[in-house]
Write a structure and sequence with these properties.
Helix content: 25-40%
Radius of gyration: 16 Å
Number of strands: 6
Shape: globular
Largest sheet: 6 strands, antiparallel
Strand content: 25-35%
Order of helices and strands: EEEEHEEHH
Structural class: alpha+beta
Strand order of the largest sheet: 1-2-3-4-6-5
Length: 145
C-alpha cells in the first residue's frame, strides 16, 4: 500500500465540480480514463500519459465558484507538490509532474494497481491485528521522511 500523507486542509471556500469528463484530453497529454476518487478539493482521475503510455493518477484541483484559486490554495498546492516530489519511501507514490493547464492545477502521480484501504475494508470488514500493524508500519515509514 502506498499513500500520500500531505494535502489540502479544511477551511477553504466551497468549490464547484471539476469541468472535466472521462475521455477528455487534459494538458494535451493525459487522456482521462476513469475517476479514482472525488473530494472537497478535487478529483483524482485514472489517466494515460499519451507521451509514453504510462498509466497515472491525475489529481485535478477544483477551482472556486469564480473559476480561480485563492492565493492560499495555490501556495498549499505548490507546497504539497514540493514535499511529495522529495519523498522517496517505497510506501509513498511518486509524483511525475505538477502544473496548471487551462486554469486547472494538477499533479500527475504514479498509479499503483490494486485495491485501496477503503475498498478493502468495504469488501472484507475489519482487518486483523497483524494486518493493521502492517498498514500502520508502512504509513509510519512513509511519514518518517
Amino acid at each position: 500500500m502506498r499513500c500520500v500523507c500531505v494535502g489540502l486542509g479544511v477551511g477553504y471556500p466551497v468549490r464547484v465540480s471539476t469541468p472535466l469528463r472521462i475521455g477528455d484530453l487534459f494538458d494535451e497529454r493525459y487522456r482521462l480514463d476513469d475517476v479514482l476518487g472525488r473530494g472537497g478539493f478535487g478529483t483524482v482521475f485514472g489517466a494515460t500519459d499519451l507521451t509514453n503510455g504510462r498509466s497515472v493518477a491525475l489529481k485535478v484541483l477544483t477551482p472556486e465558484r469564480d473559476g480561480t484559486y485563492a492565493a492560499q490554495t495555490r501556495a498549499r498546492f505548490e507546497r504539497e507538490a514540493t514535499i511529495v516530489g522529495g519523498l522517496r519511501s517505497p510506501h509513498t507514490v511518486e509524483i511525475f509532474e505538477h502544473g496548471e493547464s487551462d486554469g486547472l492545477l494538477y499533479m500527475a502521480f504514479e498509479r499503483v494497481p490494486g485495491e485501496d484501504l477503503a475498498a478493502l475494508l468495504a469488501r472484507r470488514g475489519r482487518l486483523t491485528a497483524a494486518e493493521v500493524r502492517h498498514v500502520v508500519e508502512q504509513v509510519l515509514q512513509s511519514l518518517q521522511e
